[in-house]
Amino acid sequence: MKRYSNATLCLAVVTLVFAARPLSAGPAQPVKAKASAIQVEMIRSDEIKLPAEFQISLYENLVRQLEKQGGFEHVYRDGDRRAKDAPDLVVLHSTVRGFKEGSERARRVTTVAGATSITIHCEFKNTDGKVVLEQDVNGKVWFFGGNLRATYDFAKKTARMAHDNFNPSAHKS
Amino acid sequence: MKRSKFLVSFAMALAFAALAICGANAQQSSKTDNKAIALTGLPGVKDDAKGKLTVENGKLHFVYGKKSSDVSVASIEDVVTGEDSQAAVGKTVSTLSMAAPYGSGRFLALFRTKFDTLTLRYRDENGALHGVIFALPASGAEPIKKQLLAQGAHTTVVSERTAAAPASANSSSKEQKQ
């Protein structure tokens, strides 16, 4: 008799866990804003002096990663006149907030020193100039690769963030 | 007497050999002048493509394998070399990672040759901004930059330098040392 009651209790707990799971999973999904196209502005670094090759590498990697995994129908570059006609356009403004240039040689020799890191404040604005999404994104290269690899890391993270928050077919929240 | 003759002839042979080696090195360096690696941003060209970079008839011409890619010089808004960046920021990306198998890169990094970079910004026919980064042999970017400027490209760095030039005549040598 006791064995049966224990089994019933276990079954009830398992049922409760499975029943509660969809309820808790529901609100965690982010609501995606509608945006079929994105325009990438040139990376600004007014306060922090950034080498020209880093600035260009950040911009080019960002455009490439947004084209690859951003989920947008069109990715326009800074100054592209065709962006004016694009419906549901968001404009990405990026400003460098922090930059620490490491050393590839130090990384390769010690594996613990010489990391390069870059912090960029990203603002996604709609055509009215209203900020739809803003976040600081960090790009790092710890162990392998040249210093410019930090720009690739930043671009991948930003593209993923854009993919998670915008959808070309979603309805505006 | 014999010994001194031998020493003189040996010294002369050494001197000739040194001259010949210097000549061969000079010839080799002049041949490799326009070698470049397109690190990123050149349309239709894979990253890290090795080729030759020339400036001809108002176009920046990059030839790699059997293919080529052109950028109109007139559309270039900014040309910056690694040395320019060094002067402005203090550090540059002077060493580049090269593929080295089985972790030998860590050892090779200690003996890695230094590179110069040439960074361009230009706009296409739609007004869209593009950026290109080339890696060149050490101090190989400046001659190409000069050719580009002579054929109509623009730069933000030259104006700053020329503005600062009259102020101090000897400043350029000091800047290089810094």
Distance between the termini of chain B: 54 Å
**How many strands, what sense, and barrel or not for the largest sheet of chain A?**
5 strands, mixed
Describe the main β-sheet of chain B briefly.
7 strands, antiparallel
Structural classification of chain A = alpha/beta
- H and E order of chain A: HEEHEEHEEHE
Proportion of helical residues of chain B: 25-40%
What oligomeric arrangement do these chains adopt?
heterodimer
**Total number of domains of chain A:** 1
Instruction: Return Rg of chain A in Å.
Output: 22 Å
CATH class of chain B: Mainly Beta
> What is the strand tally of chain A?
7
| Rg for CA atoms of chain B | 21 Å
State the helicity of chain A in percent bands.
25-40%
Low-confidence stretches of chain B: 22-32, 97-111, 162-178
CATH superfamily of chain A: Lipoprotein like domain
For the record, the count of structural domains of chain B works out to 1
User: How would you sum up the global shape of chain B?
Assistant: elongated
* Spatial strand arrangement across the major sheet of chain A: 3-2-4-5-6
CATH topology-level name of chain A = Double Stranded RNA Binding Domain
Per DSSP, what share of the residues of chain A sits in E-state strands of 2 or more residues? Answer: 25-35%
Q: How is this structure best described in words?
A:
- The complex is a heterodimer of chains A (173) and B (178).
- Chain A is 38% helix and 26% strand.
- Chain A is of the alpha/beta class and 173 residues long.
- Chain A has a single domain, classed as 2-Layer Sandwich (Double Stranded RNA Binding Domain).
- In chain A, the strands form two sheets. In chain A, strands 3-2-4-5-6 form a five-stranded mixed β-sheet, covered by helices on one side.
- Chain B has a single domain (38-177), classed as PH-domain like, CATH 2.30.29.
- In chain B, 38% of the residues lie in helices and 28% in strands.
- Chain B is built from six helices and seven strands.
- Chain B has a seven-stranded antiparallel β-sheet.
